[in-house]
Amino acid sequence: GGKFILLFFLLIVTVGVLWTWNVRQNNERARWTPAKETQNAPIISLTKPAILVSDPVQGSPDAPLTIVEFADFRCPHCAETAQELQKLLINNPDKIRLVWKDFPIIPPREESFRAHTAARCAQTQGKFWEYHNSLFTNQNTITSDQLTASARETGLQMDAFSLCLNNGTTK
């Protein structure tokens, strides 16, 4: 009698733990699943990333070398790389084209997403790269206050920036 009750209790607990683990795995998988509109998008190339009109680009469109940078504004190595890439662009203005791809991966990811959303809001005002540089310069303090300070520093129209950031149109 007592062993049966104990085994039954352990079975219930095990099922509960497995169910909870499965739900969490499915939630994490869902975070990495592309939006429905992109799930069936045709694959343009398996050997090189697609460069979209929405991607921020610096340098000559006819440059023989295109560098596609996947980066997170909160990544210290990305900040170092951004400085080196800027030097390359300055020293080779007709030879390099730099394409930016958002890659918000540093935990907590919500903070990275917000920084990337803010940078894309700056892009709507034609100031992506200036804002990009400000975020990397102030990387250790990327907070809502810093996002606003970087917007002011780069000369953005603040009402439009705030509206864009708060309604998530560039998320």
Structure write-up:
It is a single chain. This protein is mainly alpha-helical and about 170 residues long. It has seven helices and three strands, in the order H-H-E-E-H-E-H-H-H-H. Strand 2, helix 3 (about 75-90) and strand 3 (about 95-100) form a beta-alpha-beta unit. The model has no long low-confidence stretch (mean pLDDT about 85).
Supply the key terms:
mainly alpha; 171 residues; 10% strand; elongated; 3-stranded mixed β-sheet
What sequence of helices (H) and strands (E) makes up the elements?
Answer: HHEEHEHHHH
**What is the helical fraction, as a range of percent?**
55-70%
Shape: elongated
Low confidence ranges: none
Radius of gyration: 22 Å
Which class do the helix and strand fractions yield?
mainly alpha
Short description:
The protein contains seven helices and three strands; from the N terminus they run H-H-E-E-H-E-H-H-H-H.
Sequence-ordered SSE layout with sheet pairings:
Layout: H1 2-31, H2 36-39, E1 57-59, E2 65-71, H3 76-91, E3 96-102, H4 109-124, H5 128-137, H6 144-153, H7 158-167
Helix pairs in contact: 4-5, 4-7
